[in-house]
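The passage that follows is intended for readers who have already worked through the single-chain material. We present the inputs for a multi-component assembly, then the predicted structure in tokenized form, and finally a short commentary. You are encouraged to pause after the input and sketch how you expect the pieces to fit together before reading on.
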Amino acid sequence: MSDITITRLDASSTDFFRQLHDLLAFDKTDNLEIHQRVLAIIADVRSNGDKAVIDYTNRFDHRSVTQISELELSPEILKSAWNGLPTEQAQALQTAADRIRAYAEHQKIESWQYTEADGTVLGQKITPLDRVGLYVPGGKAAYPSSVLMNAIPAKVAGVGELIMVVPAPHGETNQLVLAAASLVGVDRVFTMGGAQAVAALAYGTETLRPVAKIVGPGNIYVATAKKLVFGQVGIDMIAGPSEILIICDGKTNPDWIAMDMFSQAEHDENAQAILISTDASYLDAVEQSINKLLPTMERAEIIRASLTTRGAFIKVNHLEIAAVVANIIAPEHLELSVEDPEALCEEIHHAGAIFMGRYTAEALGDYCAGPNHVLPTSSTARFSSPLGVYDFQKRSSLINCSQAGADTLGKTASILARGESLTAHARSAEYRIKTD
Amino acid sequence: MSDITITRLDASSTDFFRQLHDLLAFDKTDNLEIHQRVLAIIADVRSNGDKAVIDYTNRFDHRSVTQISELELSPEILKSAWNGLPTEQAQALQTAADRIRAYAEHQKIESWQYTEADGTVLGQKITPLDRVGLYVPGGKAAYPSSVLMNAIPAKVAGVGELIMVVPAPHGETNQLVLAAASLVGVDRVFTMGGAQAVAALAYGTETLRPVAKIVGPGNIYVATAKKLVFGQVGIDMIAGPSEILIICDGKTNPDWIAMDMFSQAEHDENAQAILISTDASYLDAVEQSINKLLPTMERAEIIRASLTTRGAFIKVNHLEIAAVVANIIAPEHLELSVEDPEALCEEIHHAGAIFMGRYTAEALGDYCAGPNHVLPTSSTARFSSPLGVYDFQKRSSLINCSQAGADTLGKTASILARGESLTAHARSAEYRIKTD
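Having made your guess, compare it with the prediction:
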């Protein structure tokens, strides 16, 4: 296995920002053929309901069911998956679930209101979503941690019914995933997947009631279906390739940093791991660690492909410059592997999750630290947030005018409405002005 | 002018829920030709920057500028629009802005963190968006209230730079809109509009720096452009036709309720106004008021078209049933014109804004009560919220593990990562487990 060389940039070079732009570029063009196929599946499910879902499931997942009820897994099946787990795994899942729940509890938003001097009440009422769909990928890549991260915030928000869908190719299910569903109290589980499952959740069928929101990761068909049903239902973000940016002052064991980069790169060949350091010789040391450790990795080929095509080392002259670069990248995961991470964190404005200090490996956050691992990718941390309880709650404005309040507000509204030539608005307000 | 008859439904009829479904149905199909034209404009602006923006602006808005700087309005121009307002309008705008700001201040989300027994710190850091674009329609329909409602929450959130775009056909601008921009402290204003303005805001040009989010209403080209740049930037909701649902116990002056329905219907022919009452004779009385008042309205033809094609009266036997129907509709605006609106409000789970009591005309909320008038339409209140300060803030998760915390968490993460066959994750966590 030949050594790999990581792309190097220097933030003090005149061409740096263009190079950085090129490094981050990733083609997100929609595949029109997939788009058309998914549109057809959605239309079919809307027209033919259960029958369409059954047909696609039998065809794509090599099943032979005749009704939706055969796709549902009973609570007993989930419970027995949980009971069958090795103790060590059960305890680890339980610990992770407890910590994710404890953190999520801090995110709940609460209703509020205030009363003005004239008795008018203004406020905001918080309600949970009625019903939520959770997509979980099936087949080889089975991620029980994803069940925890998506389901627990919904449950903490008070979502009435949480419906999980997971494809079961040839009828095969993953016990860890079912155990996780049992642990977090998913209300119903159906072994279906693909665009047909997304369409069934969004529009409902004879058997399935439509949900208000669909969350969870999936392949390109699932992601495309989620985009296309958005508006009918809410969706979480459409995730791009996973990314990590590590800022290191050169004093963390280079093996640790190499492995942190691997932990991102092993996800897939398009994943991106970038290390920024003030110390050029440290970048050399991490490269040596990479080449030393790479042959020992199970997913060496994926890691190699990711690091050689999308990985990078960036040399900066000061940590302040590292923060500037981090804010441009707006990374999904940001490790601050430095002596004083609090100080550096003050300079960070855009990141999905910030892992502070040499001991805070990103992998701890992926599983059990508490914060969610569903994070904004592809620089969308400039305007969006980790998945959280707030994604399963919504707000309604409350206005309750006293007679005196309506009198005062009516006069102002009347002037403004007439300025916009909306005279029905004006007259509606004027009716509430006192006439005596 | 002939009398109009409002469609009547009875919630106790066996076919009611299908009828309600048909009443609410609205074709939201994308227009593919517009989609293609907008895609081409966006591609052109991305490739040719300022030049493309100038070309489209000259062509579509009948301008003759040679550089972007000619499209910018100086703070002095905005200030002079404000100074030129009649006192009554200036005071009304000031009152509205003050109330919108006071309400918005309650919406700010704050950073938090907590420390666990072993010294590990978990938290959530809140930051404002760096730069936001505010689209304001130009031409005849000039809505200064829209400038207030979109700009003030952004300012309260602490957005660094707020850039407003407003088309100026033939170079003409609306003084009320410019005055509102001055009042709320918009940072820069450019007289440009359409898909080209949205593209310039999203991707930037030689002159314009890209924004993180674009908000504000626009025509079908603007709405399509916003959909297409979503992901590159955040956007607010794509609004459907405006709607009001009124629940009345039959004891509010029927003229008031008729005018409240008009205030929705005058927006456009697709706007939807629905009245639910427990009292069939009250529905007759409101219909009489409608026919009495309609000939006196400036926008009578629009109101007539809206009420005859999309308006409805729904008779229910109990207010509890009215709440059930309201939760199915999930209306943008909900008036509870009843004796005890607080009790009825308890039953409401899905609505953009709730106007409680006979004095709370929806028009008061449109202009100056305080809550935002940008609200979820087309039943999206099932999963989304009014525009608010929180739409201009975002969250970053914080994790700072102590050495002891990393030791404990590392063991759990290792087990879970190995369960998912992600061994680089596992080894990254294991490095942080104490070895002594």
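Commentary: The mean pLDDT of chain B is 96. Residues 401-436 of chain B form one domain. How closely did your sketch match?
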